[in-house]
Amino acid sequence: MTLRAVGPARPDTVWRRYTCLxxxxxxxxxxxxxHADRREVSPGLSGTVQTFAGIRIAFLVxxxxxEERSWTWRVRLGPARLRLRHDxxxxxxxSETSLVxxxxxxxxxxxxxxxxxxxxxxxxx
Length: 125
Known about the structure:
Radius of gyration: 14 Å
Shape: globular
CATH architecture: 2-Layer Sandwich
Order of helices and strands: EHHEEEEEEH
CATH topology: Alpha-D-Glucose-1,6-Bisphosphate, Chain A, domain 4
CATH class: Alpha Beta
Number of strands: 7
């Protein structure tokens, strides 16, 4: 499943919001906090995302490409696993972000509305 959002925020601003863990809760309403040893997205970084419902979801960042403004991570909630790839591109209106999700179809369908909302908030000034 691939989701996209376009908005007026500059690509560098959107990329910074992705790579700074302390900013995730500001644009992603399902996130209350991120617990990790470092505060910047980097390959090998692991930790947990705490949701608004208090659920903790384990994650591992697989890859980060600063030049291409893309990063990939895996998340785990119990036996369920998701792989997510985030990309940021310049767009005539400001920036475009895309999210490619891989995992069980029922989980993707349940997560997609929250992810769409987060992406649209991410690309706002």
